[in-house]
Amino acid sequence: MIWRADTAAPSPRPSVLPWAVYPDWDAIYADNVGRIYRLMFSKVGNRPDAEDLTSQVFTAALGPLRPGAEIGQVRSYLTTTARTVLAEHWRRTLGHQVTEIDPDILDLAELPPGAGDDGDAGAQAQRILDALPERYRQILTLRFLRGYTVRQAATELGVSVANAKVLQLRALRAAARAETAQGVRDVEANIVGEGEAS
Amino acid sequence: MRRQAVDRYVDRLLGRRRPKSFAATEDELAMVRTAIDLAAAGPDAHGPSPAFVDRLRDQLREHEQTQEATPEPRPAWRTPPRRRFLAAGALTATGALVGAAADQLLQSRDQSPQAQPPDAPGELVPVTGTWQPVAQTSEVPEGAVVAFDLGAVTGFVRRTGGRLRAVSGNCTHQGCRLNLDTTRDKLACPCHGATFSLAGVNLTRPHQSGTPLPALPRVPVREQGGTVQIYAPAGDHSPPAA
Ligand code: FES
Description:
The complex is a heterodimer of chains A (198) and B (242). Chain A has 198 residues and is mainly alpha-helical. Chain A has seven helices and no strands. Chain A folds into two domains: 14-110, no CATH class; 117-182, Arc Repressor Mutant, subunit A (Orthogonal Bundle), CATH 1.10.10.10. Chain A starts with 24 loop residues before the first helix and ends in a 6-residue tail after the last helix. Chain B is α+β, with helices and mostly antiparallel strands and 242 residues long. Chain B has two domains: 1-71, no CATH class; 130-233, Rieske Iron-sulfur Protein (3-layer Sandwich), CATH 2.102.10.10. Chain B is built from five helices and ten strands; from the N terminus they run αααααββββββββββ. In chain B, strand 7 (195-197) and strand 8 form a beta hairpin. The longest helix of chain B is centred in the N-terminal third of the chain and has 18 residues, at 50-67. In chain B, 36% of the residues are buried. Chains A and B meet through helix 1, helix 2, helix 3, helix 4 and helix 5 of A and helix 1, helix 2, helix 3, helix 4 and helix 5 of B. Residues 171, 173-174, 176, 189, 191-194, 206 of chain B line the site of FE2/S2 (inorganic) cluster.
C-alpha cells in the first residue's frame, strides 16, 4: 500500500508522517538540519552560535543515529541532544541557563501544518514590543526585526547615532523588565488578578 | 563599565557576530534573553545558509567514515528488526515511485535545494496524510485517555496539562496492539507483557528481560472545530481485516 503525495491532502504542504523511516544518514540530515538550526537560533539569537550548536548536535548524533530509524524517534533524539548542547553552551559562556529548550517540544519539534503554533518567535517578539512605548518599540523593531544598523536606525528616527544607542539600550532594559514582570504575573495570575505595576 | 558589556553583547548579536561572554548580573541576563527573543524574529532566523548546510554535511560524512571501523553499543531506541509499522511495503516494492514523491516533499519542506538528499532518491518513504477526526473535544477532557483506530493508524490520545498528545498503539517489540490498562494509567501489551506509560515510554520489558524497548512513536494530533484530529495516511479507511 502506498500513500502518495497527491492523494487529496487538504493541507498545502504535505508532511512525512513521524513513524515513517529514514533510509540513510543524508535523509536524516536533510530533513532535520533546518529544524535544529531554527531551534538553536531561537535560543541564541545569532548565526555563528546557531551554526556551531547545530554542528555539535549532528556530530553527537552521528554515532547513535542509524538509517532505518523512525522519523519521530530521530527527531526526539536530536531535540534531546539539542537541549543538552544548549545547556552546555550557556554553562560555558554566560554561566547561566539563559534560554532552554522546552521539554514539551522534545517529541516532534515540527508537526504537520496546522498542528503547531507557527510563528511562535514572531508572536513572542510582538508581545514584547507591544508592551513598550512607541519610541522604544520603533528602535527595537528597526534594529532587531528589520536588521537596520544603528546609523540607519538613527537616520530613520531623526536622532544622532549616540542617541540611538542610548535609546536602544533603554528600550531593551524596559523590555526585559516588562518581560520579567510578565513572567511573574503569569505565575501569579490566579492570585493577583489585575494588579498593574507600570 | 557593566553597561558596556551587555551593550557589546547585544551589538555583536545584532552585527551577526558571535557575542562575547561576560559576568552578567540578573538584569543583564534578562536583557540578553529579551535580545535573543527579539533576534529570533529577525532576518537570520528563517533557516541555515545553504553554504553551512553543505559544509556540515561534508564534515559529517568525513566523520562518519573515520568512525565506521569502531563498533558501537546499540542504543536502546535504535530501531530493532521488528515489523515495520506502516512503511515497510512501500520501502521495498515501489522505491522509484515513492522516491519521486519524496523529493517533492523535501523540497516543499525546505526551500533550499541543497537540503535534498543528493543520492539515494529511490529510498525515502514519504507517507503523507490528512487530518482525520477521532473524537469530539468534549470526549477528551483533561486527564482523559481515548483509544482511536483509523485502520492504518491506531493509538491513544490524551489531554494532559491542557495539551493533546497521541501515541501509536502498536507495541515496539513485535507490533502487537496495545491495550489501555484497567487503571487507565498505562498501556499493556497482550503478547509478551511489555508496558508503556501513556506518554509512550517503555516501563516493563517483554518477558521481563532484555533491553528497554523504543518509546511509542508520537502521532500528530490537533483540535479543530470541536473535534480531535489525528494526522494519518490519506484515504485509508479500510479495516485492517485481510
Ligand atoms: S509484542 Fe508487545 S511485548 Fe512482544
